[in-house]
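Problem 3 from the worked examples.
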Amino acid sequence: MLGVSQSLLRFWETEFDCIKPHKNKKGNRSYTEQDIEVLRNIYYYTKECGFTLDGAKEQLKKKNTVNEKTQAIDTLLNIRKFLVELKDEL
């Protein structure tokens, strides 16, 4: 979903206490919607805005979520995909 490695996700789990995926007996992780939203926010702050991990932690504490931005981006990507498919059909 985010295009990051599994090791980076595990690292973020150790750094951010708010990420608590459920693990089965094999150790496979299942992320909740809330976990995914936190991971998206961490990705946004660290990769797109250039914050350090401490800066990302501060932003998460301030509740400056990018939920609306990520939803808008997802919507725009879906619209773009639809328009490209429509163009190809014409």
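Problem 4, a separate protein:
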Amino acid sequence: MTNDMNREQIRLSDRILSALELSLEQGDLKISEILTRALEQAMTRNTGGGEFVERRDYPPEIESAMSKLFELKDKEQAI
């Protein structure tokens, strides 16, 4: 496979998730929140319409990132 094919097979949401995981590792709450919103947008665009409700389960990687985000928020609020 060429680099172009690999690049085409990676979804935007995968790249955002990678950046989100890095920001969580670094403890950057503000960037993590921005990337979470971007991830939600990337995963739900072009779906449903105005009253669309997401019914699928998120992959384990996203569930893990969300758990880390909530832990980081709790830690920041405790300070």
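Solution to problem 4. The chain has four helices and no strands. The mean pLDDT is 84.
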